[in-house]
Amino acid sequence: MIKDIKPWLSAFRLRTLPLSVSGIILGSCFAFYNGFFNWIVFLLAILTTIALQILSNLANDLGDSEKGTDNEHRVGPERAVQSGKITSDQMFEAVKMNIIIVIILAFLLVYCAFGVRHFLYAVLFLALAGISIYSAVSYTMGNSAYGYKGLGDLFVLIFFGFVSVVGTYFLHTMLLDHVLVLPALTLGLLSVGVLNLNNMRDIDSDKMSNKMTLAVKMGKKGAKIYHVILIAGAIIISLVFSILYYTSLWNFLFLVTYIPLILHIKHIIKAKQPNDFDSQLKVLALTTFVFSLLLGIGYIL
């Protein structure tokens, strides 16, 4: 039984889950700060986001395998379909089942947030859920997979940054607040950095498979410069935010994450081999998660 579960746990790529919920935590913390917070909405938003991330991971495993991108030249964790531990048909069924789970969770989330009184808000967020499902699946699957056209970075910026943070805040408050723009942008840039790390690691195998990520288009040197701009930009924007919207010294709690971020930049500048980038994926993803947690808590305290 355990042997049957292990390939699926690997395909779920559990290490990506903390990053996926960072925006939910940050948006919820700001909602709490402003006197709006609903535990049921928070938990359902976490579950829906995790289900979406797992859906994306399963679909990517299947899509990259079908396109031949997952091959012997690829560096990083072994993919389930590529290894033969899970068949393409099994993975396709898992993708369909996960879509159903996301739809159910999204309906529950929207109902708990808006009820039946705010019908237009409910329709808007259900449409957003549909777009999120489509985006999760079509990153690598299908003939027009946007991940193969260098558009993945833009989608991550939008969904992991603005949709996640601002959307979660709206679910709690039914309000839009310009204060969230800079935190959402910061989180979006850090999340794009995680994707760019993955793309820099796979730059050679992706190029051979005609997967034209931004890293492939810019080349190794350009991708490194781009990465430094992403992380440095996130540091600068978050610092500006904490100064503009200062309320107490607790607001600067998140500054401790600058230490691993700066060390991360130094590591990437020196990186040469694919494994040098792969080793930094967990570092940046977990640092981003801690950043969102400390930034949010810093305004609650």
Topology order in helix (H) and strand (E) letters? HHHHHHHHHHHHH
Structural class of the secondary structure composition?
Answer: mainly alpha
Shape: globular
- Enumerate how many helices there are, as a single number: 13
Largest sheet: none
Number of domains: 1
Helical residue percent? over 70%
C-alpha Rg (nearest Å) = 19 Å
Unreliable spans are none
Percent of residues in β-strands: under 5%
Please give the number of β-strands: 0
Ends apart, CA distance between termini: 45 Å
Q: Mean pLDDT score, rounded?
A: 91
Notes on the protein architecture:
The chain is mainly α. The chain has one domain. Helix content is 75%, strand content 0%. It is built from 13 helices and no strands. The radius of gyration is 19 Å and the shape is globular.
In short:
The protein has 301 residues and is an all-alpha fold. The protein has 13 helices and no strands.
Keywords, separated by commas or semicolons:
301 residues, mainly alpha, 13 helices, globular
Topology, pairings included?
Elements lengths: L1 H11 L4 H4 L1 H12 L5 H28 L13 H4 L4 H27 L4 H20 L13 H22 L7 H21 L1 H6 L5 H31 L13 H13 L3 H27 L1
